[in-house]
């Protein structure tokens, strides 16, 4: 079993969190609650990936047991080995559980561990929604919607560009229009980073983290950074609507609009 194969299976079974609300809800009111929720999501991903990697290892172990069996005829060994290989590919592709008798115990163990991890993560979402709902119902709604999307199965490999709703039009490097000092935002399919530089070109503030897009709504989880003002930003989750017109990205938030222009290779 390769680590890449294990990662493929884990990625197939997990849908990385995306926001899906009808209007921006803003960050969770309590930074500590936001940090706890982020930690719970990271723990869930880690536990499921670990369980997935161990489960994939059981396919190889069972195939070894079949190959070394002194009770099976060669035709049976070949048939069972090919069945295990096919079931391993099916599990990695769409999470389909194997039916081979020798995988029964491993399957039950994997399902139990995955279920336990999900229960703990769901409780963290519910706690965050309850805490947010004490002062901000919109933020609570956003948490519950994110919970639904977080546990949706990811699309099968190779179908990530199946429709416009799955595409991320913001991937690239952007420059803040009209800014007095240099401000650049770098967006990948999964993360973002923004850097502020002084006139001498020295970076005075930078931060970044997970970045998700669904339709015309984006969400930034500010997970790391440094510089002046960083303490006020860390652990925030910022949700906003946006529009892209040609090479111009307009962010629409509670304080107004921000305009960013796409930086193209020279």
The main pleated sheet reads as:
8 strands, antiparallel, barrel
Number of self-contained structural domains: 2
Shape estimate: elongated
Strand order of the largest sheet: 1-2-3-4-5-7-8-9
**Spatial extent as radius of gyration:** 23 Å
Structural class comes to: alpha+beta
Helix content: 40-55%
Task: Indicate the low-confidence ranges by residue numbers.
Answer: 1-26, 156-166
- Tally the beta strands: 9
Strand content: 15-25%
Q: What average pLDDT do the residues reach? A: 81
What's the short story on this structure?
The protein is an alpha+beta fold.
Description:
This protein has helices at 3-13, 31-68, 74-94, 104-133, 137-150, 230-233; strands at residues 172-176, 183-187, 191-197, 203-214, 217-221, 224-227, 237-245, 248-253, 256-262. The chain is an alpha+beta fold. It starts with a helix and ends with a strand. It folds into 2 domains: 23-150, no CATH class; 164-262, Lipocalin (Beta Barrel), CATH 2.40.128. It is elongated, with a radius of gyration of 23 Å.
Short descriptors:
single chain; 266 residues; alpha+beta; Lipocalin; 2 domains; eight-stranded antiparallel barrel; 6 helices; 44% helix; 23% strand; elongated; disordered N terminus
Which SSEs are present, and which pair or pack?
Elements: H1 3-13, H2 31-68, H3 74-94, H4 104-133, H5 137-150, E1 172-176, E2 183-187, E3 191-197, E4 203-214, E5 217-221, E6 224-227, H6 230-233, E7 237-245, E8 248-253, E9 256-262
Antiparallel strand pairs: 1-2, 1-9, 2-3, 3-4, 4-5, 4-6, 5-7, 7-8, 8-9
Helix pairs in contact: 1-2, 1-3, 2-3, 2-4, 4-5
């Amino acid at each position: 079993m390769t680590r890449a194969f294990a990662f493929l299976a884990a990625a197939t079974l997990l849908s990385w969190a995306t926001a899906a609300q009808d209007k921006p809800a803003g960050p969770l009111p309590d930074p500590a609650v936001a940090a706890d929720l982020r930690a719970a999501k990271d723990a869930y991903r880690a536990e499921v990936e670990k369980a997935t990697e161990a489960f994939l290892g059981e396919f190889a172990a069972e195939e070894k047991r079949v190959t070394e069996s002194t009770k099976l005829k060669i035709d049976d060994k070949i048939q069972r080995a090919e069945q295990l290989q096919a079931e391993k590919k099916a599990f990695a592709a769409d999470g389909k559980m194997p039916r081979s008798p020798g995988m029964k115990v491993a399957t039950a163990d994997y399902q139990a561990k995955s279920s336990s991890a999900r229960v703990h993560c769901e409780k963290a979402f519910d706690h965050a929604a309850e805490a947010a709902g004490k002062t901000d119902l919109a933020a609570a709604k956003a948490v519950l919607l994110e919970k639904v999307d977080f546990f949706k199965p990811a699309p099968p490999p190779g179908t990530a560009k199946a429709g416009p709703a799955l595409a991320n039009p913001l991937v690239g490097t952007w420059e803040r229009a009209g800014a007095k000092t240099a401000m650049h935002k770098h967006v990948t399919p999964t993360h973002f980073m923004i850097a502020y530089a002084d006139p001498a070109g020295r970076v005075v503030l930078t931060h970044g983290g997970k970045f998700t897009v669904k339709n015309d709504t984006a969400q930034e989880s500010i997970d790391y950074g440094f510089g002046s003002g960083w303490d006020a930003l860390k652990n925030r989750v910022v949700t906003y609507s946006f529009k892209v017109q040609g090479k111009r990205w307009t962010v629409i938030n509670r304080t107004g609009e921000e305009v960013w222009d796409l930086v193209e290779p020279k």
